[in-house]
UniProtKB/TrEMBL annotation:
PANTHER family: N-ACYLNEURAMINATE-9-PHOSPHATASE (PTHR46470). Transmembrane segments: none annotated. The keyword Hydrolase applies. It comes from Nocardioides kribbensis. This is HAD family hydrolase. Keywords: Hydrolase, Magnesium. One of its GO terms (molecular function) is hydrolase activity. The keyword Magnesium applies.
Amino acid sequence: MPLIALDLDGTLVDQASAARAWSAGFVDEWRLPAGEVDVVATALTARRPKGEVFSEIIGRLGLPTAADDVWLDYRSRMPSLVTVTDEDRIALTELRAAGWTLGIVTNGMLDNQEGKIRRTCLDSLVDGWVVSDDVGVRKPAPAIFEALASRLGCALEGWMIGDSLELDVAGGAAVGLRTAWLDDGSDPTGYRPDLVVDSVAAAARAILDGQPSATPR
Ligand SMILES: [Mg+2]
């Protein structure tokens, strides 16, 4: 059956609120100014390799600890801080019942991303996933989408649902997928998602209703 590829952070799980909760704990632990919660949370929500982000944070704050240790703490706590909405869980169940193969394609470290997938029970709602750290290539490179299709044993035909214009919309379109963009407030000039939605559930409704034509091109 055709594939629906889904992004994880900011799409299936509320990475930004979870990052903010972690940042609040970090600021408290190190007795930093309260304003640092927003600064650190914003840095951790940027779509960049987190190793770089933690090096910058620890260097800027001059803390007597290793950036790698703080990054490890972040990865160990994030799986218990993210949530998935009930509406999105139901939508995934309905898509699978309609015959779609569901796979998560996400940039990040295997322990953190897989921890989030398992802790939220998304592992029981999708058919599989690929994490960039595990396959050695990050979105938007075509190879990570090809790795997902290969892992799931299906053709690279169907949809990509995600909140990043560059990683998910452009990346998915480049390998022939239709794209549903969860509007994150970015300027979409230059990108052409097939759907603009506010949740995975909304994308699923449109796909199941065949608007626009949900069958592979
Ligand atoms: Mg995302």
